[in-house]
Amino acid sequence: MEIVIHDSPQRLGEVAADAIAALLAADPTAVLGLATGSSPRPVYDALAARCERGEVSFAQARAFTLDEYVGLPADHPERYRNVIDADFVSRVDFAPGAVQGPDGLATDIPAACAEYEAAIVAAGGVDLQILGIGTDGHIAFNEPGSSLASRTRIKTLTRQTRLDNARFFDGDPQAVPQHCLTQGLATIMAARHIVLLATGRGKAEAVHHLAEGAVSAMWPATILQHHPHVSVLLDSAAASRLQ
Ligand code: F6R
Hints:
Pfam families: Glucosamine_iso. By secondary structure, this protein is α/β, with parallel strands linked by helices. Helix content is 30%, strand content 16%. α7 links the parallel β9 (193-198) and β10 (230-234).
């Protein structure tokens, strides 16, 4: 696990964007894994600017998102598919249909989860996965207690995550859906390179466990200690509990 510390979120975004641009230069058909939320936004801003300048193209690339709330209407602004479209996909040149996400409106949820896993495998797997981390150590929506061998499935969000995400729902934790579909920890571990971003003191304890804690389902991100190629991009507040 390599750890990079910079105090400017823009600089962290450029570091991640450099990795993605290098990947696409080597293989324009690369498969990306996209996280939603505030942590990756500087990455998406940097990539959108580079795409606009003609320095990088996603025209032949594909991407898979990590997770989705269950039951939010298709036009809900906080549906993760809509968030990632607004934050990134609509700002670059992906081909129509090149970005897929778990279907939080599926009537047969186990079948939709199995189809999603199969789609990732059929695409050749994820070359570079962008991740954030929850204050409770979740990655995607694999909350504490998630199986380290898990695959895409339905999960219940913890009270902590609903509190953390209330900021996107007019401050009301009750408005945050209770359930989500999420790639599992084993799904994420199959990505060939993982780039995790975390900023702010609120992430410091989770980052400490990620890098220095015992591997445990109670801090799901610790499974990344078993991955051969993880880059962790932090500001000094998020790094403040590292030894
Ligand atoms: C989002 C996701 C979550 C977030 C995490 C941190 O697709 O998978 O694990 O990465 O909740 O969220 P932010 O970045 O908003 O602090």
